[in-house]
Design brief:
- With about 600 residues, this protein is mostly helical.
- The chain folds into 2 domains: about 1-190 and about 200-260, MFS general substrate transporter like domains (Growth Hormone, Chain: A, Up-down Bundle); about 340-545, MFS general substrate transporter like domains (Growth Hormone, Chain: A, Up-down Bundle).
- Helices cover about 75% and strands about 0% of the residues.
- The protein contains 28 helices and 2 strands.
- The chain has a two-stranded antiparallel sheet with strand order 1-2.
- The longest helix has about 50 residues, at about 525-575.
- The protein is globular.
- It is a multi-pass membrane protein.
- InterPro entries: MFS_trans_sf, NFD4_C, Nodulin-like.
- It is found in: Membrane.
- Keywords: Membrane, Transmembrane, Transmembrane helix.
Length: about 600
C-alpha cells in the first residue's frame, strides 16, 4: 500500500519537474531584449537559439550520468546547470556584467543541455515506476512541460506589469531549482519495483483518467487567465497562487489509492477501463516470438505473411498475384519492421529505413514548431502586434500543453478502435501546414498570427510527447535512452537550418533602427512559411502509408501472441494432462491467453 502511494507521489514530482523546467519555450519573451543589449543581428540571435537547441545534441551525457550517479544527484546537477546558464544571461541583460558573444553562446548551450537532464530524469522515473502504463504516464508528465511558459507568464506578471525580458531569465534560473528541491523528498523514497496484475493496471488507468481531467482543468485555467488583462499586481499574484494550488492538487492521488475498494465498487462497475494497449512482448516470451516469426517465414510465404494458393490451377494468375503481394509488402515495409518492440542497438537502428523516415518526420514536424516558437516574438512584432511577446508565448505554451495531453489518445482508444501510433503522428502534422497557409493567405495580421500559433503549438506538442512512446514501441524499450537521444539530434540540425533561413530573410527585408535590424511587414517571414508548408504536405502523404506499415507489425505481433498462446496451452496440457482444450484449438481470446500463460507458469514452478 505504501509503495503504491509513493509511486504516485513520484509521478507528481515528475509533473513538478516538467512544469517548471520548460524554459526553452519562453525564449521569445526575452530574445528582443537580449538582441538589443548585445547589439547583434537576427542571424546572430538565431545562433543563440540554435545553441540552446544544440544542448539537446549532448543529451547522451544525462544518460551516461544516470549510469554512474543516483537520480537525485543528476536532478540537482541539472538544476545547477540551469542556474548558471540562465543566471549569467540575466546578469548580462541587466547590465551587471558584460560578456562577449561567444560566452553567451556557451551559456545558452549549457542552459539548453540542462533541460535534457531534467527530461531524462522524468522519463526514467516514469519508466521505472509505471512499466505497464508507461505511455500514459509519459504523455501526462511531458504535457506539463508545455505549460511552463504560461506559468512563467503569470509569475512574471505577479512581479512586474511591464513586459521585461529579464524577469523571464530570472525565473528560468531559479524556478527549476526550487522545483527540484521540492521533488527530492518523494524521489529519495522511491519504492522497489513490483509486478502489476491486471486489476491493479485497470485501477491505475482510472487514476490516470482523473489526472488527465485535472490537467485539462489546469490548461483551461492558464489559457483563460492569459486572455484577461489586469492592471493590479495583487490580481496577478492571486492568479499565480491559484496555479500553484492546482499543481499541488495531484498529491490527492495517494488518497485515491488508499480508497481503491471504493473506486472498484463505484467506478469500475460503471466504467470498465482496460490498461493501455502498449503492453509489448514480455522479455521471457521474446525468444519464443522470434522463433514463431522465423517459422512463419520458413513456411514459404510470399512477403505479405499469407500463403498464396493457386486458384483453379491457374499457375500464371498465382504468380502474378504473388509478385503484386511482394511489391505491396515492400511498399508497406513489412520486411523492415518484423514486430513492435523489437530491440535495436545503435548499429541496427541507423540501418533501418523506418528509423530515417521517422527521423525526417520529426525533423519536418516537431522541429519546425520549435523553430517557430523561437521566432514567434519577432513574427508578432513584424506584423505590428502590440500586446508583447509574453502573451503569444503563453498562448503557445497552453496549446502545446493540450497537444501533449492528446498524445495519450491512442492508449485510451484501444478498447474501441485500433490505430497505429504512427498514424496519430501523421494526423498531428495536419494543423501545421494549415497554420502556415493561413499566415500566407492573410498577409500575416496579428490576429492570424495568434490563430496560427495555437495550431502549430497543438501539432508540435502532440509530436513532442508522442515520439517518446513511439521510439520505444518501434525500436524497443530497453535501448530507449540511446535511440531517442539519436532521434532528437535533428532538433539542433533543424534549428540551424530553419532558423538560419528565417533569420537571413528577416535581415534582407529589414532596416537598421538604433543599431539593430528591424523588419516590419508580411515580407519578413512569408517566404519562410511557404517551403515548410510544402514539406508538411509531402510528409503527410507519406504518413498515410506509414500507419499501414506498423499495423502490419501489429498483425505480426498478434500472430506471434496467438501462436505463443497455443504453444503454452499445449505445454500446459503436457504437464497436467487435462483442461484448456478449447484454448489449444482457438487460443484467440485474451482471457484464454492470459489464463493459460499464468497457469502454465504456475504448474512449471510447482
Amino acid at each position: 500500500m505504501a509503495g503504491q502511494s509513493r509511486k504516485w507521489t513520484i509521478l507528481v514530482a515528475t509533473i513538478w519537474i516538467q512544469a517548471f523546467t520548460g524554459t526553452n519555450f519562453d525564449f521569445s519573451a526575452y530574445s528582443s531584449s537580449l538582441k538589443s543589449v548585445l547589439g547583434i543581428s537576427q542571424v546572430q540571435l538565431n545562433y543563440l537559439a540554435v545553441a540552446s537547441d544544440l544542448g539537446k545534441a549532448l543529451a547522451w551525457s544525462s544518460g551516461f550520468a544516470l549510469l554512474h550517479l543516483p537520480v537525485p544527484t543528476v536532478l540537482l546537477i541539472a538544476a545547477i546547470m540551469g542556474l548558471a546558464g540562465y543566471g549569467a544571461q540575466w546578469l548580462v541583460i541587466r547590465s551587471f556584467i558584460s560578456l562577449p558573444y561567444f560566452v553567451v553562446f556557451l551559456l545558452c548551450l549549457l542552459a539548453g543541455n540542462s533541460i535534457c537532464w531534467f527530461n531524462t530524469v522524468s522519463f526514467v522515473l516514469c519508466i521505472r515506476n509505471f512499466p505497464v502504463n508507461r505511455p500514459i504516464a509519459l504523455a501526462l508528465t511531458i504535457s506539463y512541460n508545455g505549460v511552463s511558459a504560461a506559468i512563467y507568464h503569470l509569475a512574471a506578471r505577479s512581479i512586474t506589469l511591464s513586459s521585461s525580458g529579464s524577469v523571464y531569465l530570472l525565473l528560468n534560473a531559479i524556478a527549476p531549482l526550487f522545483a527540484s528541491i521540492a521533488a527530492l523528498p518523494p524521489i529519495l523514497r522511491q519504492p522497489e519495483p513490483r509486478p502489476l496484475d491486471q486489476e491493479a493496471a485497470n485501477r491505475d488507468a482510472v487514476v490516470f483518467l482523473f489526472l488527465n481531467i485535472l490537467a485539462i482543468v489546469i490548461g483551461i485555467y492558464l489559457l483563460s487567465m492569459d486572455s484577461l488583462k489586469f492592471t493590479s499586481l495583487d490580481i496577478y499574484r492571486a492568479l499565480f497562487a491559484g496555479a500553484i494550488i492546482f499543481m499541488i492538487l495531484p498529491l490527492c492521488i495517494p488518497g485515491i489509492i488508499y480508497a481503491r475498494d471504493w473506486a472498484k465498487r463505484t467506478i469500475h462497475s460503471s466504467f470498465r477501463l482496460e490498461g493501455p494497449g502498449f503492453n509489448l512482448i514480455d522479455n521471457d516470451d521474446l525468444d519464443l516470438t522470434k522463433e514463431l516469426l522465423v517459422h512463419e517465414k520458413e513456411k514459404g510465404d510470399h512477403g505479405d505473411g499469407f500463403e498464396l494458393e493457386e486458384q483453379d490451377g491457374n499457375y500464371l494468375f498465382s504468380r502474378i498475384r504473388g509478385y503484386f503481394g511482394q511489391l505491396w509488402s515492400y511498399i508497406l515495409g513489412v520486411d523492415k519492421l518484423a514486430y513492435l518492440g523489437d530491440e535495436h542497438n545503435v548499429s541496427r537502428l541507423v540501418r533501418r529505413v523506418d528509423f530515417w523516415l521517422y527521423f525526417m518526420g520529426y525533423f519536418c514536424g516537431g522541429t519546425v514548431g520549435l523553430v517557430y516558437s523561437n521566432n514567434m516574438g519577432q513574427i508578432l512584432q513584424s506584423v505590428g502586434g502590440t500586446s508583447g511577446a509574453s502573451s503569444i508565448v503563453s498562448l503557445y505554451s497552453s496549446f502545446s500543453f493540450f497537444g501533449r495531453l492528446l498524445s495519450a489518445w491512442p492508449d485510451y482508444s484501444r478498447g474501441w478502435m485500433s490505430f497505429a501510433r504512427t498514424g496519430s503522428l501523421a494526423m498531428a502534422l495536419v494543423p501545421t501546414p494549415i497554420a502556415f497557409f493561413i499566415l500566407i493567405a492573410s498577409g500575416s495580421t496579428a490576429r492570424m498570427v495568434y490563430i496560427s500559433t495555437a495550431l502549430i503549438a497543438l501539432s508540435s506538442g502532440f509530436i513532442f510527447a508522442a515520439t517518446v512512446s513511439v521510439t520505444a514501441e518501434l525500436f524497443g524499450p530497453n535501448a530507449f535512452g540511446v535511440n531517442h537521444n539519436i532521434l532528437i539530434t535533428n532538433i539542433p540540425i533543424g534549428s540551424l537550418v530553419y532558423g538560419s533561413i528565417a533569420a537571413l530573410i528577416y535581415d534582407l527585408n529589414g532596416r537598421e533602427n538604433d543599431g539593430a535590424i528591424v523588419c516590419m511587414g508580411a515580407a519578413c517571414y512569408r517566404t519562410t512559411f511557404v517551403w515548410p508548408s510544402g514539406m508538411h504536405c509531402a510528409l503527410m502523404a507519406k504518413g498515410l502509408v506509414n500507419p499501414l506499415v506498423h499495423q502490419a507489425a501489429h498483425i505480426n505481433l498478434g500472430r506471434a501472441e496467438l501462436g505463443r498462446s497455443r504453444l503454452l496451452a499445449k505445454r500446459w496440457l503436457d504437464l497436467t494432462g487435462h483442461g484448456q482444450e478449447d484454448c489449444v484449438q482457438e487460443a484467440s481470446h485474451t482471457a484464454c491467453w492470459v489464463g493459460v500463460r499464468y497457469e502454465y507458469v504456475w504448474v512449471q514452478n510447482v
